[in-house]
Amino acid sequence: xxxxxxxxxxxxxxxxxxPEWTRTGDTITRSVRAATFPAGIELVxxxxxxxxxxxxxxxxxxRWRTVTFALSTHSAGGLTRKDLxxxxxxxxxxxxx
Length: 97
Fold this sequence. Notes:
alpha+beta, 4-stranded antiparallel β-sheet
């Protein structure tokens, strides 16, 4: 079952609640600067666990202490509710790091 794409209005509304995220086309991204390299890796592990539970997986780029998360629902061809929901979870986890 394909998750429906969000309208431009729904995306704008959702991003108002996710101020750390930016949109480029069909993707939203956020970078987190961890206190240490191991702390960044631990954040990635926690996000991986949450992504598995949600069955929705971000693209993750690790550059020393900076971890960048990118979300898009590739199977739907753009942004869906799954992206906004996982972005909120990542925000919660980043706040605990």
